[in-house]
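seq as requested:
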Amino acid sequence: MYRSPKKSAVKYNREGGQVTVRFEQTATSWTLHVADTGIGISQDDQSRIFQRFYRADNSRTKQVVSGTGLGLAIVAELVSAMKGTINVQSQRGVGSTFDVIFQRLQLDE
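struct tokens:
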């Protein structure tokens, strides 16, 4: 779950771009944030990137990157199976941020 968003952030980044990975913990949740300064993802593609085998059209990304389109789909299924969520916020030409969020278990004392 950590590796695929980080790998995508590096793969779809521009030369000299940055990738930031951070963890955040609150009283109720745990969140992994992976942000990049890459090419970004169009609004149309954002609704589909977690589907198996989905790849954005190369003519829209202006970048030829190999892959099967399975990485984020597998992560989304794993996160969902563990009752978590994965979200993306992105803007073309600016970059993307992926958030993987899990609710913390409240153990009775």
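Strands lie at 19-25, 29-36, 85-91, 95-103.
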